[in-house]
Amino acid sequence: MAEHPAYPVGLRLTGRRVVVLGGGQVAQRRLPALIAAGADIHLVSPEATPSVEAMAEAGEITWHRRPYTEGDLATAWYALIATSDTEANTRASAEAEAHRVWCVRSDDADAATAWTPATGTSEGVTVAVLTTEARGRDPRHTAAIRDAVVEGLRDGTLVAPHHRTRTPGVALVGGGPGDPDLITVRGRRLLAEADVVIADRLGPRDLLAELPPHVEVIDAAKIPYGRFMAQEAINNALVEHAKQGRSVVRLKGGDPYVFGRGMEELHALAEAGIPCTVVPGISSSISVPGAAGIPVTHRGVAHEFTVVSGHVAPDDERSLVDWPSLAKLTGTLVVLMGVDKIGRIAETLVANGKSPDTPVALVQEGTTAAQRRVDATLATVAETAAAQGVKPPAVIVIGEVVAVGPRGTA
Ligand SMILES: C[S@@+](CC[C@H](N)C(=O)[O-])C[C@H]1O[C@@H](n2cnc3c(N)ncnc32)[C@H](O)[C@@H]1O
């Protein structure tokens, strides 16, 4: 049977009876894909792992709690034979053969009439890798090839130029806090497909160096804005490049909708009739404290965290933040864009009832090689930040969570 290579095919199993014999690890690994394929799955096994049992409880499979008996495979389209009893497996595969049911055997690939490829998916494409001959089967090698292809397609290092459907218009991509590994898989793929990238100063700037030379990289801070406001100039640049039929990525720090003006850009694009997709990002408000060893919540310490902008002082009439109310909260306060105003912020919180001993941490350039953390209290933070030369970008964390990490976590 193994003289010739296997013939690859995609089975369309929706509503079709698939019989799985054995409820152990093999079934547990294979069942999710069969469920995803919409198969009418019948598991025959006296026992099952807790995960397989959960699939039965959820109604995703029908579980017959008994050993295999002759006739189980008679009406199946496809079978997976994976019991721990070799003799039963042999009888079952003979029955499959007699009824012309394609069957996979976990214990004897040579005796099977079908092999399961190593599979993975990326953007609507299933990658399936199959060894050509049973004798040369090396599951780790096939899995490694699968991983290389799927990973490459996902992160854009493997480009399929003739067939890839490029995203038209603009993608507002949240790039995460700065470490290039902390962008999402989707964001990275869109970046790899872009013709033009308009990037902020914050975010994963190292990724820009990896872009091929034909990609135009525009620094958002350097877009000339003449009589326009800077944001309007950025909106215009997005619209103009997209109108020329180019794939545009607007690469933003953190998440596009957390103090990121993402919705303003989306509105401008909608008004110009440009399709826009938004890719969430890991916000610095959670990830930067985390990178410095500070959880924004901790059981028994903080049951809430509030993220606020500190770009205007509490007594500034433009401020929309209710600082006196924030002073009364027991949870964590995370302040973005607050380095310049931290003195006034700390004073206001203390004046409204927050203890001057409340721990404060300033985390500058979190998740990058230059990350540093400076600790203080509300009473000392203004002086400490100035003395230590803390500069933006920094996330300021105020609350008892600052002190819960083991020493040296940051
Ligand atoms: C205009 S806001 C954008 C926030 C972003 N959209 C996000 O979700 O993280 C910029 C502020 O985010 C914070 N920030 C962003 N990246 C940071 C980093 N790597 N380290 C420290 N603070 C950061 C700083 O407070 C900075 O002033």
Automatic annotation (TrEMBL):
Pathway(s) where this gene product acts: Porphyrin-containing compound metabolism; siroheme biosynthesis; sirohydrochlorin from precorrin-2: step 1/1
A GO molecular-function annotation: uroporphyrin-III C-methyltransferase activity
Keyword set includes Transmembrane helix: no
Swiss-Prot/TrEMBL keywords: Cobalamin biosynthesis, Lyase, Methyltransferase, Multifunctional enzyme, NAD, Oxidoreductase, Porphyrin biosynthesis, S-adenosyl-L-methionine, Transferase
CDD domains attached to this UniProt entry: SUMT
Catalytic activity: precorrin-2 + NAD(+) = sirohydrochlorin + NADH + 2 H(+)
EC identifiers of the protein: 2.1.1.107
Alphabetical list of InterPro entries matching this protein: 4pyrrol_Mease, 4pyrrol_Methylase_sf, 4pyrrole_Mease_sub1, 4pyrrole_Mease_sub2, CobA/CysG_C, NAD(P)-bd_dom_sf, Siro_Cobalamin_biosynth, Sirohaem_synth
Domain Tetrapyrrole methylase: 170-381
Keyword rRNA-binding: no
Pfam family, one: TP_methylase
PROSITE patterns linked: SUMT_2
UniProt family annotation: Belongs to the precorrin methyltransferase family.
Protein name listed in UniProt: Uroporphyrinogen-III C-methyltransferase
